[in-house]
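Long-time lurker, first post. I've been practising inverse folding by hand and with some scripts of my own, and I keep getting stuck on stretches where the structure tokens seem ambiguous. Below is the full token string for one chain I'm working on. Before anyone asks, I'm not after the true native sequence, just a reasonable design that respects the backbone. If someone could post their per-position residues I'd love to compare against what I wrote down in my notebook.
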């Protein structure tokens, strides 16, 4: 019941956090890049020209709310599968906009996720696993490891999303599905489309890929160090496993072990330190 309550609270906190840090709800709107302005200029009814000076001419300044919904080119490709449209959808999606901010901005958001997950999810679960007071170090190490694992999953999702869009922008052809996986096709990009996509990739996507790579490497190093630290803490003061069948058999004839087990139980039923056996005992009577 306690874990269920913590889980409900943690989900609510994470939803509030994602909404607060989503680019669409940011207190200060981000200034669009030159490439985003160029994309907007290419969605007008004017026929695009292939000369660089006219191709990347910016028609007007804009903020994120005025980003186009679609762009020209690749008429045979469904709108949702055109590389530029995939990029526009990506930066509007929850979480993915975090990566397009500066490196300090990304780290700040990841730190906030870490703090929320540590306090609302991981530490309560670790506390239900290591129930004795002398295991505070193990609880902290376990909660830290769980929070970093969540960050690693988020970074993996961000990295795969941005690198996928980057590969679509760099490619000279567009692979797409007309109605399903069984009728796929491809279309070669025109010269104007290819120049636009390469420019957009170099201006807006490549810096994000480099940022995500840098942060991911640092996070993997921290995750590896936390895993080693957790194992060291566990081995330094291992839990007394009174539920091990071999241990239970040994208690029958080993008086010293029986006394240690009784002292370890601190006058409470032996099932109090196990969530499973507490549930079997109808909630753990006598544990509180």
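-- Answer (accepted) --
I ran through it position by position. Result:
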């Amino acid at each position: 019941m306690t874990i269920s309550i913590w889980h409900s609270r943690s989900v609510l906190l994470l939803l509030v956090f994602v909404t607060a840090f989503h680019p669409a709800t940011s207190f200060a709107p981000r200034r669009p890049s030159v490439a985003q302005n160029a994309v907007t200029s290419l969605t007008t009814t004017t026929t695009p020209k292939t000369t660089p000076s006219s191709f990347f001419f910016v028609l007007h300044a804009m903020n994120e709310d005025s980003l186009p919904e679609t762009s020209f080119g690749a008429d045979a490709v469904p709108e949702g599968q055109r590389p530029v449209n995939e990029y526009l959808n990506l930066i509007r999606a929850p979480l993915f906009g975090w990566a397009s901010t500066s490196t300090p901005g990304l780290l700040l958001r990841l730190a906030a996720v870490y703090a929320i997950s540590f306090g609302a999810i991981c530490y309560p679960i670790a506390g239900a696993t290591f129930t004795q007071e002398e295991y505070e170090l193990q609880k902290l190490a376990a909660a830290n490891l769980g929070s970093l694992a969540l960050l690693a999953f988020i970074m993996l999702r961000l990295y795969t999303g941005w690198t996928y869009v980057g590969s679509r922008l760099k490619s000279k052809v567009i692979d797409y599905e007309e109605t399903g996986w069984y009728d796929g096709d491809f279309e070669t990009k025109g010269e104007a489309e290819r120049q636009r996509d390469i420019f957009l990739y170099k201006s807006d996507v490549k810096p994000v890929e480099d940022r995500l790579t840098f942060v991911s490497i640092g996070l993997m190093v921290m995750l590896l160090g936390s895993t080693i630290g957790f194992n060291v803490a566990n081995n330094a003061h291992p839990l007394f496993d009174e539920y091990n069948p071999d241990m239970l058999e040994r208690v029958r004839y080993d008086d010293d072990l029986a006394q240690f087990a009784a002292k370890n139980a601190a006058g409470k039923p032996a099932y109090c330190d196990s969530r499973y056996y507490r549930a079997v005992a109808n909630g753990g009577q006598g544990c509180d």
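A couple of notes from the structure itself: The chain is about 60% helix and 5% strand. The CA atoms of residues 8 and 63 lie 36 Å apart. Happy to go over any region you disagree with.
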